[in-house]
């Protein structure tokens, strides 16, 4: 690795993600999208995919970067001299039909379940792209983009597909034999890490409080459910929920009418679903949520950039409040959640867990020290919004349909992870993951079934 061009040291948030891979505490993030190409695209799909990947590698320097010294306190990024697309990109024909309506995509889920338990090895790229082709329609395929969390957050996965769609459109006039397999890496520098462009400040009382709880005494509510104590290795379990377009639209409308947001209502629905199936002695669940900090970052970092620029926030739900009106959706809890999110946003990244990462001396020791201890959170929600860059009614352009966002469950984090996105088909899709053994599989099956009912109820 010494001969590779050195780019820059990893920032604290990147270090956190880098340290988790060798410890097998977390592997990757994925955003998957189904594409339909116009009839004018007559070459094999592989040619268009390779050409689009060439465009993206030129646009996003992180796609040719990998972290090195991962198991030390001083990891940094180096640039691969070139990317041989035959390594990260693979095409495979579906063995099952494309899902229709709100059917889950079983084949995609099986692929992702394996991928979310599989890491990356240098000097191969720290991302993979699987193209699931369709025998019945050779212009249609699902692109599954799987990437290391230090290379990007959920919004970066969205940015990959937005720029991939544009690159496919630009490849419309591609000729046979023009697409290249070996792509030279760009010369552009990596975008800056979060802490280099945003202060991530913490107030003294906040720091003192966190230190006191960590070092002196921490009260744990006996009614709090967080699943099994922290353990390795991770064997990812994954399910997909598809809320059809008409129901999703009604759900979004009802969120607005009830002064809630989609993210806040999702959080309340998951809390309700958990309490429905947890034993009565569990009276509290804790949420950890992710917020994109791009809105505060000036200059070159935009919604289309690829890198990791997220913050965290927390929320607690109490059984008595969530079930106050058992026959109605818990809109009061959704409004409370929305207020928490807005308060977090108004602080512009001040007093977050991410802001405290700069005080960690040794991430390996910090993370290994958590194994065998109780989790702090019950569930995590990451909602990256809508991925719908389609040009309306333009049949000459490639189109994006159903989209899915999913990730490895964090071994040191929440017991249940829900990743949410809405695609070009208007369906709200939830990628739900958990670590095998963190709770009984029957519990999660029941929670998922109830969650679907709750979201349909919220759309009534």
Automatic annotation (TrEMBL):
Question: Can you name this protein?
Answer: Alcohol acetyltransferase
What's the domain of life for this entry? Eukaryota
**Gene3D superfamilies with a match to the protein in the record:** Chloramphenicol acetyltransferase-like domain
- GO terms of molecular function: N-acetyltransferase activity
Write down the InterPro entries for this protein, in alphabetical order: Alcohol_O-acetyltransferase, Atf2/Sli1-like, CAT-like_dom_sf
């Amino acid at each position: 690795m010494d001969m590779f061009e050195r780019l820059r040291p990893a920032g604290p948030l990147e270090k956190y993600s880098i340290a988790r891979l060798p410890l097998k505490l977390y592997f990757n993030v994925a955003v998957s999208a189904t594409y339909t190409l116009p009839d004018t695209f007559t070459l094999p799909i592989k040619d268009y995919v390779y050409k689009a990947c060439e465009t993206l590698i030129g646009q996003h320097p992180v796609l040719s970067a990998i972290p090195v010294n991962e198991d030390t306190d001083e990891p940094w990024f180096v640039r691969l001299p070139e990317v041989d697309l035959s390594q990260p990109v693979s095409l495979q024909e579906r063995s099952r039909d494309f899902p229709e309506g709100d059917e889950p995509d079983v084949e995609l889920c099986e692929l992702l379940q394996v991928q979310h338990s599989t890491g990356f090895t240098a000097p191969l790229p720290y991302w993979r792209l699987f193209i699931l082709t369709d025998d019945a329609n050779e212009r249609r395929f699902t692109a599954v983009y799987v990437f290391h969390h230090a290379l990007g957050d959920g919004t970066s996965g969205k940015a990959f597909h937005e720029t991939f769609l544009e690159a496919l459109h630009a490849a419309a006039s591609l000729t046979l034999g023009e697409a290249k397999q070996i792509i030279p890496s760009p010369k552009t520098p990596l975008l800056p890490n979060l802490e280099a462009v945003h202060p991530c400040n913490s107030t003294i009382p906040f720091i003192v409080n966190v230190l006191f709880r960590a070092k002196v005494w921490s009260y744990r509510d006996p009614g709090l459910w967080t699943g099994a104590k922290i353990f390795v290795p991770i064997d990812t379990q994954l399910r997909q929920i598809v809320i059809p377009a008409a129901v999703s639209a009604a759900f979004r409308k009802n969120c607005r009418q009830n002064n809630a947001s989609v993210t806040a209502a999702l959080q309340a629905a998951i809390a309700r679903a958990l309490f429905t199936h947890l034993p009565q002695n569990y009276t509290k669940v804790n949420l950890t949520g992710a917020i994109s900090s791009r809105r505060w970052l000036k200059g070159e970092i935009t919604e289309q950039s690829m890198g990791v620029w997220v913050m965290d926030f927390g929320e607690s739900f109490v059984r008595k409040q969530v079930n106050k009106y058992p026959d109605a959706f818990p809109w009061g809890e959704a409004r409370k959640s929305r207020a928490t999110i807005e308060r977090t946003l108004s602080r512009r990244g001040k007093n977050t867990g991410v802001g405290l990462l700069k005080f960690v001396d040794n991430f390996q020791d910090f993370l290994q020290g958590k194994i065998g201890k109780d989790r702090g959170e019950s569930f995590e929600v990451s909602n990256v919004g809508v991925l719908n860059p389609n040009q309306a009614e333009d049949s000459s352009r490639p189109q994006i349909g159903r989209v899915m966002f999913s990730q490895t469950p964090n071994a040191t984090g929440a017991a249940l992870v829900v990743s949410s996105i809405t695609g070009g088909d208007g369906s709200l899709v939830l990628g739900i993951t958990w670590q095998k053994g963190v709770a009984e599989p029957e519990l999660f099956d029941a929670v998922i079934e109830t969650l679907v009912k709750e979201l349909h109820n919220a759309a009534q």
